[in-house]
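Protein modeling request. Please complete all fields; requests missing the sequence field cannot be processed.
Requester role: graduate student
Desired output: 3D structure, token encoding
Chains: 1
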Amino acid sequence: MEGAPARDSKSYSLALRDEIGPVGRTLASHFFEGIRFSREAESELERLSKDGFVVHVMRTTAWVNYLYLAWALVRRGLPPIRAVVNLRRWFTRPWRRAAQRGELEVRLTYARRKSGSALVFLKRSALGTARGRSTKEDPFPALVAFARKSDRPVYLVPELFVWEKSRERLKPAVLDYIFGSPEAPGFLHSLVAFFRNYRRAQFRMGEPLDLRTFVQERPGVPDGQIARKARGALYHHLARQTRAVFGPPPKSADRLIEQALRDRTLNRALNEYAVKSHRRMEAVVSEARRALRSIAARPSATVVGLAMPLLHWVFNRIYDGIEVDEAGLERAMKSAASAPIVLCPSHKSHVDYLVMSFVLWNRGYSVPLVAAGSNLSFFPLGPLFRRGGAFFLRRSFRGEAVYTAAFRAYVKRLVHEGVHQEFFLEGGRSRTGKLLTPKLGLLTWEVDAVLEGASNDIHFVPVAIDYERVVESSSYSEELAGAEKKPENIRALLATPKVLRSNYGRIHLHFDEPVSLVDFMESRGLSPADTSEDGKRGLVRALGNRIIYGISRVSTVTPHALVSAALLAHRGRGVSDAELSHRIGALLRIAEEEGRPISSLLSGAPLTPTTAGPIQDAMSLFVDEEAVRIQEVKGEPMYLVAEERRTELSYYKNTLINLVAPRSLVARALLSTSAATREQVQDAALFLSRLLKRELVYRVGATFDVLFSEALEALRRAGLVEAAQGQVSTAGEAERDSLAFLADLLRDLVEGYLAAALTLKELAQAQGMERRTFIRAAIETGRAEYLAGRIAAPESLSKATMENAVLYLLDQRILIEEGRRLQLGPTALPALEGDQLANRIRSSLNRITSR
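Delivered output (851 residues):
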């Protein structure tokens, strides 16, 4: 249960016995403790209760709602229910302390005198209707009159107790007219549904309405009219909370497809294509319909419900648990009450597709529709994924005008309906552990949907999904060494037994602040009603960077990442236990200073592998997998990394690279600059920052000058550098070693770019190469440099790093691409003369030993 009780167990037991009868206490002890009641809701109710009189407002009469709320208030030491409106009397008989008869104003006065609260239901269930009926007693005129006379605020608090597994339906089923629907459940419906789903239940609170202020702001308006407005506002808040949990009432895939086909933008695109291709419009529309059928999800609550126990077993089998940022999740889903949300997680594993839906389902939310690559639509999993909420997109839309227009129309329809979505902004999975440059295609269509009026706004939620170990780590290492990516097919499933015999530690989910598109546009001086194509392109690019930065700043620091970083950022053969512990402590201090999430396992844990704890567990795993060897020297352990496993370990090191990036850049610039004026160090850091701009994520909106100054000041506060009168220097030899550690966290990336720069001569001699050939040649160049001892980190020989190095060379016009061949560009000559570019990169790797 989220939200700790506000009273000790003894006083709670006495209060519960005094408040609730034996049947209610039995139900509460067995079923209510695990229901999610957020700390934010508890704090808000406590604040409102101290400030004024609280009237809890729920949508439809339900005995279980009353019982739960009565228990929850007692459990948290909040004012108990002392007045009830529109609950059948015989249901409330076990709780005789609540006034349920007589004039409402008398009941409210009684509740206030007893330092309690009130509960009002807006509708009641009834035989023969699935939507419920109006209550016999309209409490709002009396509430308005009560608020007029009150000397304290009267807060109407819309609340939702979610224990149904499905959302309301557009068209009620036959049984809904007999037993009630999820919107207005009858007694038997509510009882059965609660006992089936209480483990996923949650309590949600909407925006409180200060009725006294509401009345005062409408002088001269009759009480009846004010009552109707207040009632309508509460209905609106409850509807928004319901949509935040479940999304909109579900529509069939076929209906969404037909509505998408009626989209004006789609029909205009199809008509232009028909004219251009000399095809009949009917044939083009048929092609668009086929494309939409291949794209569309066909979500089934039954399939999802059946899959969840299996996922629960699998996750419990291979992971030690899932740590969820509950406050961040609550904040993200709360934002869904005001606009459609798009969850944008990091993408490190195929497990990402499952873990978000698993977490949301088990907390009572509906699962989002997830954009998945068409490579995952293979039989037999493809149909199951589609029924679980996956909609599929091709890896490339090039030359597919009809498919592109159809996919864009489908996304626009999802935004219009307010469906919760999830997609991976990085496109493919990260093979390196670093966050990838955002792919902007799908993000552009989400933005287009709002600009074209499908919704007033949309919220993007950056989510970091971090693993202590990823299932695919060994295959990633092979791909980074140059092996081709293995396609996902039935053969890959045969490896499942091996996976199920392994342990992969913990999964961590953290949620950054939701990014409102409209607010983001306004911050850039743009308006949804008037944005040019150039303005939109810049907007989408900035939005993509903002989301990636959001993921970066909520990425979890794990024990495996700390150990890997401490081991790999080292130029010697082995790392002593004392040095390893010192480095891990330094990284943790940076994480704490930057406010980054840290695995709960590390709280108060020893930082040495020689003492039982998470660091020892991480080191033991690496030793068991023969990635690390331990040798004892003079009674102290030394840790040596197996050269052939460094690439695999670098995956975990890279998950925290953005945490230290600004300090690492400044440290590397300082250590490689012989005459250390501030300007020279800043110039060297700027060169590295531009060189590695596709590898690192910086704070959005901050200039390089600001980031440099902040990093330099952080190093000064840590006692590692001295800066005065325009000069920068290391504080001492020990501090120089600490700076070298920070600098060497980036060494493999810089060495990879050095190998690419050295390959330019080979490309010039060959008079051009295909991009793939150049990348292979760069890896071979790097291998030769490594064997010759001029490159220290074998993990620098990474296909992913070489691909980004090529993009850097293209950006600098050192290379150009004509057709599919790379050629020397207009700025190549200065870069090649005297190996100017390679020497500039090499100089940043050198460590100046004296000033």
